[in-house]
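Let's do one together. I've listed all components of the complex below, 1274 residues spread over three lines.
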Amino acid sequence: MSTRLAKGGRLLDRSKPLNFTFNGTPLRGFLGDTLASALLGSGKTLLGRSFKYHRPRGLVASGVEEPNVLVNLGRNARLEPDQRATTTELFEGAEAASQNHWPSLEFDIGEINDKISKLFPAGFYYKTFMAPKWAWKHLFEPVIRQAAGLGAAPKEADPDRYEQTYAFCDVLVAGGGVAGLAAALAEAKAGKRVMVMEQTAFWGGRAPVDGGTIDGLAPDEWVRNAIEALEKMENVQLFTRTMVSGLYNHGYVIGYQRVADHTPGDGRPRHRLWRIRAGLVITATGALERPLAFAGNDVPGVMLASAVRDYLVNWAVSPGDRVVIVTNNDDAYRTALAVLDAGLSVPVVIDARDSVTGALPMAVKARGVRVLEGRGVAKVLGRKAVTGVEICAQAGEGGVIETVACDCVAMSGGWSPVVHLFSHVGGKLIWDEAGAMFRPDATRPPIKADGTALARAVGAANGALTLDALCAEAGLAAQVEPEAPLAPVWVMPAGAKEALKFKAFLDYQNDVKVSDVQLAAREGYTSVEHTKRYTTLGMASDQGKLSNINGLAILSDALGQAIPQTGTTTFRPPYTPISFGAVAAEAKGEIFQPLRRTPMHGWHEAKGAHWEPVGLWRRPYCYPRSGESHRDAVNREITNTRTNVGLLDASTLGKIVVKGPDAGRFLDMLYTGMMSTLPVGKCRYGIMCNENGFLMDDGVVVRLSEDSWLCHTTSGGAEHIHAWMEDWLQCEWWDWKVYTANLTEQYAQVAVVGPKARAVLEKLGGMDVSKEALPFMSLAEGTLGGFPARVFRISFSGELSYEIAVPANMGLAFWEALNAAGAEFGAMPYGTEALHVMRAEKGFIMIGDETDGTVIPQDLNLGWAISKKKDDYLGKRAQARVEMARPDRWRLVGLETIDGTVLPDGVYAVAEGHNANGQRNTQGRVTSTYWSPTLKKGIAMGLVVNGPERMGEVLDFPGDGGGVHKVKIVDPCFYDKEGEKANV
Amino acid sequence: MSEAMSALKGETHTGFATVAEAGLTGMVTIRADLADPALAAALAPLGLTVPALRQVTAAGGRSLGWMSPDELLLVCGYDEAPGLAATLATALAESHALVVNVSDMRARFTVSGAKAREVMMKLCPLDFATLPVMEMRRTRAAQVAVALWRSGADEISLVCFRSVATYVMGLLEVSSRRGGEIF
Amino acid sequence: MLTFTCPYCGVAAEESELTGGGEAHLKRFGPGSSDAEFEAYLFTRKNPKGVHFERWRHAYGCGKWFLAARDTNTLEVFGSYPAQTTEPPADLIAAIKNKRPGWEGWK
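Okay, and this is what the predicted structure of the assembly comes out as:
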């Protein structure tokens, strides 16, 4: 039975009691407690159920490596599953609940899995759910989904806020123990900008618990002095509760700060993700103690030896009254001393080594504790709590020599340096035979952009596991009991029988046992990466912090090879799980992504516009009136535009000015047509191709002056086309004198379209917009209704049409002025759908509809827009390839259903025969299809094999549900073929 | 020009720093050979000198920032921008240059207060601790391009495209909320 | 996340401020070129494991294209230089040869 001791607890503030609940039971802890220490201090040892077998589980560890005790924390919107009790600071009102059991933690139906656990060997899923095929979807997956997962997901939106921040430093120290602080002091004194990040709420790491002296001071005192000194230095930033999560290329480091986990709802961001660029990362991340694999090593009450003394020293919590120590090294004897110091009992120390003579064991013996040499644990007794251990010869098969009653077992299999950060971007490890551990190879560190070392490991993370070793490395003087070498022991006893190995756990969270790894080896899994995935060893949320080295040692043994030959699995960030909130940070709600707004956006919004996303822009699709469907609204807008006048916010159109002595020559290379000969004040439609010859963008080009042109691009294309221009100017023709500027957003642009367009502009007044003064495809500049304006006579609808650009800051006022002036002429705004229908009625192509990156201008009958006089333009060489001149290319035509209905979008016309895959051959597809309110029938455009030569032919387009659309090939221009309406 | 309205009409929020859209601002882009004596001559009447790499020069309430090896940004009064653009274009008529009024295509913001840089640290991959006053940087604020400079000891000015002004104000407002102080 | 020093701005920019542009020092082949030349220009790329010359644009910064030499395996960046050149600077080539004695050169 665990309990809180009356005295002690170096991290506790007993004057500040905190109330919390576990599974609804009110409990009490103190400021400084973790949820784990508070639970243990409240006598709670059964704290969870394992994932696969639902075995009763309790705390194994005291820190980030804890595999078992993951809880649901909080409730409603602040419910968060899988929170590690050992890294959750206790706060007033905390609500925790255990996971993965039904109906209760004490009585769990799922425990049946443990009774039949022989049916779930390694690779169970791969072996079991293979056949019959239908059963996966209908039987296996639903059942597995029901059983899978640990915690409950919250159902409400997260009320907390999260943020990210960038930071830069010369040196980032990961870990605030003695080694990290010593390194930080040295770097800071050398004038470096230093950041120090410690994942817990306290400085000092293990040394204050483990004892010894540093420069003659007790570790706590040395740490206090070091922090005081660092706090005074302006070039140092200190962070607790901040885990260095991962190292990435070129010194990019992610830090994860838990700003307000312990003060929920206080208005601060809950987590902050640090995006750091560091010149050097010093990994002072310490080491993790390894469990030993013996039968029943997962019974609640079996803990890491270091965790037992952490709970005693840091939190004044006794995990048990009678603590049996099981070890292969001297360090675990510190736990025996801590237990004795707390006035509790150590019935026996079971040491796997044949001869135990070190100073620490001697000190323990001197206090009257029985130390057994060459012994191991055959089996732990108890199910929901430890009741005793059966002791055997380590060398044997597990024959029981003696049984000792106890309520806690403290085990130690040695220590593994935390090499994660060093390894994340390619730092190499070496196997240290004496320490039976992998440690960083300083000669093969991860590198930065300049090829120099990005990381350096210090202290226990570098394999300097003892205080004297790490102090020697840091140039400090230490006094501490010397430790005798450990014996590399992975399984107890060495010849454990199958029945014992079957209950000897390696990966607690995923319920992977010694027998599973050995089975995998027998079944031919020789790679550690494959074994990991087959057995799921190390794949849980603790990422194998306790199990990896033990697992690969056992695999190596099964394969009959040395451990370094087997190697480790790849270490990947994050070191411990980080929240999705921190990853998403500010990118939610209104600022999830940038929405681009035209100057008239608010007006459209107020008029109830239905939006269409165009790139990041939002454009009105239509403006539905009360009771109107979107379709009704579009039809009304089209009819009104064709009979009266319509207004379109065309501000999103790309507008790039190109100027210089070589601008004409440059545009002749960019466009397929000839732009250098365009007279000043005139407009010309132009198309651009990439070097593959495929159509890329189109728009009207206007010559503004002798040496400057304005290039309109598609709405989505402005940035891309501007970048395309700059690419050619900077990287190919850098001696050409051309400057470009993307002025897309400088102007609000409005299309005034329809038979009464001129009347509206004349009402505004200020410019002569007559046919004579401003003929089709020309430009006038002046003041229109008081606004400085450029007026283009261009048409994308076939109607009389003006596009007017005014400064963006006046865009809304101009738009309102136009609406007011147009009222008496029936002016209405129209949206992008009406625009699309009207251009399709005229047979005008749309980039992205008629083009898909494989279409050349010739396919779209745009040969007329390609200059025959030019030697070169981008795409010309490609268009001379044989493939591009094939007579059976798919080319643009109009399509009309025989019955006048609307064709579905994207459907294919079938041809005779089948292709190599047994699919029907095709001979064309629909690229745009609409209901034309003007023509009162469905109209479409499409690409059809040799289409323009097949006018009048009827094709079959299979539709949804087995029907076939009979479709006639027609001219793509459905409306006003002679162009009389625009040219008035 | 009384009907001109800046993107956010001077919207302001005060958290642990004050973030404000600066209202109508004149801006003129000058693309030219920065070493061209004609450029220096064209700027001389304004009292402005051609800024060195990444620098911002200022005179008479106007500033001139280095945007790229062949581009400067003149920040001035909104109403005077068209005239200044025309004057500079005339002065540079004999040179290969592009001068264009871009006042309407951008929004300008100021972030001010002792912790102003803690707002910007959250948005830009830039070392604000070492950024000198009056040095121009073009970078990324979350998902959009910005140009910024420390316009004073405790003030950062930034400009972005007009269409994303609402987004940038959202970023600034969220990043300056009380409780979000970093240090 | 990679960093490159923009040779125009003189500042280190992180990858998120840049746009990659593939292999550097390609020679354009236009009308009149053979099918083989044109194919090589459009499609054939070195894709080495080791030293690679590549194009980057300081898209969120000055907007300029620059070229860089980078080891595609170790990600070490040997240097960056303005794009207005048909071949890498001699001192950069010397520096790379110094660090990668077995390197067969940039062509």
